[in-house]
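So, could you explain this one?
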Amino acid sequence: MIDTKVGVSGGRFFAFRLAPGEELLGALRRIVAAHGIRAGYVAGVVGSLSRACLRFAGRHDGTELDGCFEVVSLVGTLDAEGEHLHMTISNHEGTTTGGHVLEGCVVRTTMELVLGELSDLEFHREYCPLSTYEELAVMPRTHDKGE
């Protein structure tokens, strides 16, 4: 049986912009590390990519797409151990595609992001025998000695 506990928390938000040429996951990881985010999520995004690296459903390998793409949606969770993000993009004709975000997504003109943090919780990944993947585990936040 999967644990269905619900975590309740207060929070805070981080708003920032990525510049042309910045790599999305690397920038998000730096923000998470710099601010000690243990239970984060994407609250909002507007931006564009010149390269999108996505893994489509049911595939093991990623796909690199080069061109002009608008980010239509970016959703998911982030923590000190990693992230689980999905993105939908549209091309110059408005055709959309989406998948699991991989390293290598490069900002074209801008990427305006708002990240939320659930300050009373921590996210971890634990093996789930039903899905056979490392899945989200939500726990009360443990505080370090200087907090």
Remarks:
- The chain has one domain: 13-140.
- The domain at 13-140 is CATH 3.30.1330.80 (60s Ribosomal Protein L30; Chain: A;).
- The chain has a mean pLDDT of 93.
- The first helix runs from residue 24 to 35.
